[in-house]
Amino acid sequence: MKKIGLGLLVLFNLSACEKDDICDGALSATPNVVINMYDRMDSEVLKPAAKVCIIAEGFTDTIVFRNRSQIQLPLQINKTETTWKVLLYEPIANNDTLIKREDLKFTYAPEAQYVSKACGYKTNFLGFNAVKLENTTNDGWIQSIYKLTTEITDQSNAHIQLFY
Question: Which domain holds residue 43?
C-alpha cells in the first residue's frame, strides 16, 4: 500500500510540472526589411555592391555592407516611418572611389504580436511602402525599386528589389 501511495505521489508531482518555455529566436525576432540588389541591365541577376553604407535619418551610426547583393535594414518600432541615406562606394581608376547617394523612405504601421511567455513580443510592420526620394543632385545610383509585399512579418524572403 505504501508503494502505491508513493507511486501516486511521484506521478502526481511529475504531472504537475510545467513545460519548459524556451524561446525560438527565429520566430520571436522583429524582422528587418530585406532588400535584394539587381543589375539594372539584367533584372534577373543579383548584383553585389563593393560597399554600401547606410545611415538612418536622425542617427549617426552607420551600417556597412561589403560585397553583398542582399542587405537587411531595421525599422523603428516606435515610429511609422524610417528614412535611410544609402551611399554606394564604387571603386574607379587610380585607387579612387566614387560615392553616390540616394534616400529611401519606408512607411508602415508597427503592430506588436505576442509570441509566448518566454519570448514576449515582436513587432510586425503592416501597410509597408518603400519609395526612393527625389534626388536633387547628379549623384544618384538607384534606377528603380520594386516593393514585393505590404507586410513584413519575417525575413525569410526579400521585401524589396532594388535595381542599379
Answer: 21-163
